[in-house]
Amino acid sequence: MSRLGNIGGRLHRGEISLDFVGRQKTWYAISGLILVISVVSLLTLGLNFGVEFKGGTVFQFPTKPGVTTSDARDAVKSSGVVKEDPIVQKTGTGWRVQTESLSSTDVTKVQDSVQQRLHLAKPDDVSPQSVGASWGKDISQKALEGLLVFLVAIIIYLSIAFEWRMAVAAIIALAHDILITVGVYSLVQFEVTPSSVVGLLTILGYSLYDTVVVFDKVRENTRSLTTSNTMTYSQAANLAVNQTLVRSINTSIIALLPVAGLLFIGAGVLGAGTLKDLALVLFVGMLAGAYSSICIATPIVADLQERQEKYKTLAKRVAAKANSAKRKAKPEVEVAELPQEDVPDDEAEASSVGAGVRVVQNGPRQQPRRGGSKGRPSGKKKR
């Protein structure tokens, strides 16, 4: 068996344990710091919405050796009709430049300007595409509706399959994952496209899948918990996290490897800009989902359950049992004192020196000598 498999077996049997639930304040502090950074970034930097959401005109044209991002941006702005600073992205075969909405006459001027500045064969090499703002508004509304329907369905399912406290914890973990992912998008200023929305919905399902697996083990460990005094609810929940830890790590790594290939190799090395929107949201979302399933969702469930009276009583019984076991484990010294008339002189002296500890002398008791002349041999008295 591999070393990781051996560790997984010991975690499952409870031979070793990592205290995830007991350190919930640490996880809450880490998540709180990340969420604060995400909210501040959203309030200050905002999101870089793509043309599909805010409308505009997109120009795509091939690249040539030596052409930089600044050259592509200057070629579009030199037309004199673009007022705002265009957004330039390098694709696999060329450039993608996004501007505000332009009229057909202005589009033609931009095509001519790019063809002349970059020395393209003809103006038709610059392919324009105009998107209205109303279409992006409809897409945003449908995405929000889909997200709300998804969350309501999840709450109903988890409340029926498990209980409402687990449903609350799962929704908090999902909101945690969404806000972190959106905050990272704001920090790096990646363009928000329909692919980003699809990726966001995908990672919600992935995060929830991992959470449900842990919750199922928690339910199994706590099914008849109140009938015994072996462990509290938090301890049983922590055992469930440890029992599924190796499985969660393996699943997360296997899922993250291909997504990391899309993000770092496809978008970073090969320059496929159309992949990075989807790859970033999947990578960040899966990473946040794996973390929240272990360190956020389960501790929240334990906190909510420990508020119930039956689990408070259980915790008291477990603590009393643990204290009783500690007292029994301590060595006890029996202190006994014999009556003075039954204790010989030498034993009485030893008893007083021994601070009340009874001293028992093995073997026959030695009788004291009777009165008479000391050292005189037996026989007749010498006249």
SS elements, strand count:
6
- Please identify the top-level CATH class of the largest domain: Mainly Alpha
Rg of Cα set: 39 Å
Instruction: Kindly report the CATH topology of the largest domain.
Output: Multidrug efflux transporter AcrB transmembrane fold
Helix content: 55-70%
Strand content: 5-15%
In short:
With 383 residues, this protein is of the alpha+beta class. Helices cover 63% and strands 7% of the residues.
What features would you describe in this structure?
The protein has 13 helices and six strands. The protein has 383 residues and is an alpha+beta fold. It has two domains: 203 residues, Up-down Bundle (Multidrug efflux transporter AcrB transmembrane fold), CATH 1.20.1640; 76 residues, Alpha-Beta Plaits (2-Layer Sandwich), CATH 3.30.70.3220. The strands form two sheets. It has a four-stranded antiparallel β-sheet. The C terminus is likely disordered.
